[in-house]
């Protein structure tokens, strides 16, 4: 990964309380897993940003290396990598995601 790409990713992750690297956008998810992540976050009404990896192949590959996670979507909350849609579903079902989001948005 180039230093420039790492800096771009650092900036995206640090400047947004909640950011989802996904296929498509929150208004038009382009895969089922990305849609699942969007639906879960929408259910809390939390403000979040999305980065469409389909529009930038450098970010699409780089984010996998950045997080050491092979799949998309990838969710970051408060600068920390949380996981993909499967992890989001698990946290949601356990009732843990709401607390994570509340802490992030209060900080």
Feature tags:
single chain; 107 residues; alpha+beta; Glutaredoxin; globular
Q: Gist?
A:
By secondary structure, the chain is α+β, with helices and mostly antiparallel strands. Helix content is 53%, strand content 16%.
- Return the CATH architecture: 3-Layer(aba) Sandwich
Strand order of the largest sheet: 2-1-3-4
The chain-level structural class is alpha+beta
Name the helix and strand elements from N-terminus to C-terminus, one letter apiece: HEHEHEEHH
Q: For the record, give the distance between the C-alpha atoms at the N and C termini, rounded to a whole number.
A: 30 Å
Strand proportion: 15-25%
Describe this structure in words.
There is one protein chain. This protein has helices spanning 3-15, 32-44, 57-67, 85-94, 97-106, and strands at residues 18-22, 49-52, 74-77, 80-83. The model has no long low-confidence stretch (mean pLDDT 94). Strand 3 and strand 4 form a beta hairpin. Helices cover 53% and strands 16% of the residues. By secondary structure, the protein is α+β, with helices and mostly antiparallel strands. The protein has a single domain, classed as Glutaredoxin (3-Layer(aba) Sandwich), CATH 3.40.30. Helix 2 packs parallel to helix 4 (85-94). The chain has a four-stranded mixed β-sheet, sandwiched between helices. The chain is globular and about 40 Å long.
């Amino acid at each position: 990964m180039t230093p420039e790409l790492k800096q771009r990713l650092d900036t995206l992750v640090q400047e947004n309380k909640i950011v989802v690297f996904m296929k498509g956008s929150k208004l038009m998810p382009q895969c089922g897993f990305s849609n699942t992540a969007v639906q879960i976050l929408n259910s809390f009404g939390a403000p979040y940003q999305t980065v469409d990896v389909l529009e930038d192949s450098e970010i699409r590959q780089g984010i996998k290396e950045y997080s050491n996670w092979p799949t998309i979507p990838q969710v970051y909350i408060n600068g920390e990598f949380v996981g993909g849609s499967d992890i989001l579903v698990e946290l949601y079902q356990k009732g843990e995601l709401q607390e994570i989001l509340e802490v992030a948005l209060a900080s």
